[in-house]
Design brief:
337 residues; alpha/beta; Rossmann fold; five-stranded mixed beta sheet
């Protein structure tokens, strides 16, 4: 079972800060979560429409955000923000998430051009942010409440809390309204739904839809499962048979759930995606950490070498439509092997 520290955080303050910076833990949904995924959507039928510009929006969690003018300078303290801005054809004035920007599906080598906000995740340097004179700072509910009062005197703070892939689409739409980028939003939204439609079609045509994948994340041999109530699990459930129930035990991660290795063995996944949080070159990925576990080695997917280490940036931290499109592509490509 997963230990009693938050998702992707191992004991030790220094390591915990590094982990939070990488993962950007989301707010606790509060107790056992209902299944957040709806019936499988017909993504091929989706026609994205551009949102109208608005200086006041209400986000998927019911938070109202009001500005005096469309923001020209936005600081991102959560990777969802970086994802959204790039989808809208913008760049952050500064970021706490250089890893996501450095991904080849984002800015790649140009990520170095975006200043990095000093300070650990959830404890970013307020003075450094203030000096940038941003019009809007986008952070994460459950992590940045402590910064909001100090920053709120000079700028507007928007604390996001995406708990499903549908939420991520709605956050894109809300940000597009604020920035007046409806045309770019509609294009990005359509690209995401097209990627989902392609994944669904490929899975149906090639017999992949009946596969039962598992997303497992952790560090130091401790782990949890992304249930179908999580963002990634719910998305994969639109393509595959992602039959891992949400137990509401994910701590800071909506849809994260405790499963024992014995329960994973009994669940019999066809393939396993691993999100390994490592903090130094000497740290081993989860596939190596589990190598001597006798129960792990009895899982058929392990015996058939259908265990894949995936890129943390889009899979674990991105949460936005660009990241989720990458996840879909990765998942289908790996399932076809």
């Amino acid at each position: 079972m997963f230990l009693s520290f938050p998702r992707r955080v191992r004991p030790g303050a220094v390591v915990a800060a590094a982990l939070l910076l990488s993962a950007g833990c989301a707010a606790d949904p509060g107790g056992p979560a209902e299944e957040r995924t709806e019936a499988v959507v017909d993504a091929a039928a989706h026609q994205a429409t551009a949102v109208e510009p608005a200086l006041t929006v209400t986000d998927p969690r019911g938070t109202e955000v009001s500005l005096d003018a469309p923001p020209e300078s936005v600081v991102c303290l959560v990777a969802l923000c970086d994802d959204i801005l790039l989808e809208l054809g913008l760049r952050p004035a500064a970021t706490s998430n250089p890893q996501i920007l450095a991904h080849e599906g984002f800015l790649g080598e140009e990520a170095d051009e975006v200043p990095v906000v000093p300070g650990g995740f959830g404890n970013e340097d307020v003075e450094a942010i203030t000096r940038l004179e941003p019009d809007l700072v986008i952070g994460l509910a459950g992590s940045h409440e402590g910064l909001a009062p100090a920053l709120g005197t000079s700028t507007t703070v928007w604390l996001t809390d995406s708990r499903s892939w549908q939420d991520s689409v709605d956050y894109l739409r809300a940000a597009a309204a604020l920035t007046g980028r409806g045309e770019q939003q509609a294009a990005a939204e359509q690209r995401f739904y097209d990627a989902l439609a392609d994944a669904q079609a490929t899975a149906a045509e090639e017999g992949l839809a009946e596969l039962k994948p598992l997303v497992l994340y952790g560090s130091d041999g401790s782990f949890q499962v992304d249930s179908r109530g999580s963002i990634v699990g719910g998305l994969l459930d639109q393509v595959f048979d992602y039959d891992w129930a949400d137990r509401g035990t994910g701590g800071h991660q909506a849809g994260g759930s405790d499963y024992s290795m014995e329960e994973i063995l009994a669940g019999d996944p066809d393939l396993i995606f691993l999100e390994s949080f490592t903090f130094s070159p000497d740290d081993a990925p989860l596939s190596e950490q589990f190598a001597d576990d006798p129960v792990w080695n009895r899982i058929e997917a392990v015996r058939e070498d259908r265990v894949y280490e995936v890129d943390l940036a889009p899979w674990a931290t991105g949460r936005g439509t660009r990241s989720l499109g990458i996840v879909l592509g990765d998942a289908v490509d790996l399932a076809r092997r």
